[in-house]
Structure formats: C-alpha cells, structure tokens
Helix-turn-helix transcriptional regulator (Streptomyces sp. NBC_01401), 75 residues
Amino acid sequence: MPDEEQHGIRIHLDRILAEQDMTLTELSARVGITVVNLSVLKNGRAKAVRFSTLSRICDVLKCQPGDLITHEPEA
C-alpha cells in the first residue's frame, strides 16, 4: 500500500464483538453510527475516530478505549 500512511494502530472491534456475541449491525443500531463507518473502523481503514464516537462504542460494549485500540510499531 504505497499511498497509504503506515502506522502501528490496530483496531480490535471484531474480537470484542465476537466475545460479546454482537453483530456489527447491532452495534451500529445501538451506537447510532452507520454500518459502513463501523466497518471502515473495524477493518483498520479509518484515518481518524472522534472521541464522541469512541465513547459511544465503549459505552455500548462496556469496554475501555485501550480494549479497542492498540499500538504495535512496525518492524
């Protein structure tokens, strides 16, 4: 991916959803964010996330931001 900015940020939304037996569609309805936007976040293609969005996701999933996002520096 030559044109994309490389970073070490990893999103773990798929794992948390699986642990809570929740679909992306259900999370979308409960958080008030489109499935498309959540999918972009889940697949690691988001360039940014608003704190208000992160807060709503954490409220619904009953987790902390660090449960959703980690930094794994590139080798």
The radius of gyration is 12 Å. The chain has a mean pLDDT of 91. Residues 51-61 form the longest helix (11 residues).
